[in-house]
Amino acid sequence: MINVSLEDNPFENCEPLEDKSLQSVMDAISYSEFFVGLSSGLSWLAWAMNKPIVMIANFTEEGHEFECIRPVKKDVCNGCWNKPEYKFDKSWDWCPVHAGTDRQYECQNSILASDVIRLIEEHSLI
Questions:
Q1: Which residues 6+ apart lie within 8 Å of 3 measured at CB?
Q2: pLDDT in tens, 111-120
Q3: Distances, alpha carbon 104 to alpha carbons 57, 63, 81, 93, in Å
Q4: Backbone angles phi, psi at 100, to 5 degrees
Q5: How many CB atoms lie within 10 A of CB 50?
Q6: Of the chain's two ends, which shows fewer C-beta atoms within 10 Å, N or C?
Q7: What is the pLDDT of residues 52-107, one digit of tens each?
Q8: Within 10 A of 116 (CB to CB), how many other CB atoms are there?
């Protein structure tokens, strides 16, 4: 696994891409079998490069982005991005429903690595 994001990640066995130029990121994605990411520009880039996408984006509703593989948890708060009653705060620290509580970001935190791995296996990506 290679982390092509500018942000670090806490995952074991995930190498950081040293050169984070757009060309290096595109090269790494082009040699990959699939891409795992959030609803972000990197996912759109991988999609434009015809890579299968596993998108971890329970804060958007299914169908908001493009055709992709995505773990969905409807039993927790989800889809706030698509609800017009919430005005998006352009920071990364945006949880309009449960900010400051134990449930903050439960839409994303409820998706486990095992959920993602199961979908990767079900779709025969590895």
A1: 9, 11, 14, 15, 16, 17
A2: 999 999 999 9
A3: 15, 23, 14, 10
A4: 80, 5
A5: 7
A6: C
A7: 999 999 999 998 999 999 999 999 999 998 999 988 777 767 889 998 999 999 99
A8: 17
Separation CA 38–CA 40 (nearest Å): 5
Give CA–CA dist 96/86, Å, rounded.
7
Distance CA 4, CA 17 (A): 6
CB 51, CB 32: distance < 8 Å: yes
Q: Report the predicted TM-score, pTM, of the whole model to 2 decimal places.
A: 0.86
3 phi/psi in degrees, rounded to 5: -90, 110
The DSSP line for 26-62 is HHHHHTSS-EEE-SSHHHHHHHHTT--EEE--TTS-T
CA torsion angle for 80, 82, 87, 93 (degrees, to 10)?
Answer: 50
User: What is the rounded distance in angstroms from the CA atom of residue 20 to the CA atom of residue 44?
Assistant: 17
